[in-house]
Design goal:
By secondary structure, the chain is α/β, with parallel strands linked by helices. It has one domain: Rossmann fold (3-Layer(aba) Sandwich). It has eight helices and eleven strands. α1 crosses α2. The radius of gyration is 17 Å and the shape is globular. Bound molecules: 6-O-phosphono-beta-D-fructofuranose. 6-O-phosphono-beta-D-fructofuranose binds next to α5. InterPro entries: Glc/Gal-6P_isomerase, Glucosamine6P_isomerase, Glucosamine6P_isomerase_CS, NagB/RpiA_transferase-like. Catalyzes the reversible isomerization-deamination of glucosamine 6-phosphate (GlcN6P) to form fructose 6-phosphate (Fru6P) and ammonium ion.
Length: 254
Amino acid sequence: MGFKVNDVVNGIRVIVCEDSDAASRTTADLIADQLRERPQSVLGLATGGTPLKTYENLIELHRDGQISFAEATSFNLDEYVGLSGDHPQSYRSFMNQTLFSKVDIAPERTHVPDGLASDVPAHCTAYEDSIQSHGGIDLQLLGIGHNGHIAFNEPGSSVDSRTRRVDLTDDTIEKNARFFDSPDEVPREAITMGIATILQAKKIVLLAIGSGKTAAIKSMLFGEVTDEVPASFLRQHVGVTVVLDAAAADGLFD
Ligand SMILES: O=P(O)(O)OC[C@H]1O[C@](O)(CO)[C@@H](O)[C@@H]1O
């Protein structure tokens, strides 16, 4: 698979792969191992550009008969406030198109926060309760924002934070504008799992691809554990694996 580094850095297992394809495949293999070990797994899933290839790999493994999602349950990290599940840019649509419709997961076992919830605090509480009632998340997949955010926990998010409504930063709105026709169409708020919600997952796999993520990864692995870099809180968890391509890891382990 072309590993360059497979080591533990400040309590986090770091796997550096030769390119983005290998990093995505390594991430897919970790998820596939989880499903083989426990077919009833509760998976925490992520959106954004980063996991696209990983989802393609999982679909291939499923088509080859190597994994099944038939007994699995999923909870997504976040959703834009104000977008219905049918909106093409909603994270519900993203998940339906990129993964759920292409594997054997039961639609009723897939959970994404409802961007149109009329009572957002009640919806967030119910989302947390639903995760707990399914026994908690076995494996949480994460990406990372350029500013060190995980899910939509922007800098300043508390380590105790739970699923809640949040404002997006200008930086995140600008970065995510590529998925919309214009920056004005990017919602300004989201519902996101909190840092504490994420840290309750039994295992966490964070995938980062490309040189744009290097600074965030450096702060996460080597900087202070601080709410200014939400991903740095992952160092408080014993079961985190970070998978990087060579570009994201460039200069970090020289
Ligand atoms: O994978 P991308 O598109 O670089 O996004 C990185 C992170 O930003 C988010 O899309 C939120 O902005 C996360 O869900 C994701 O992990």
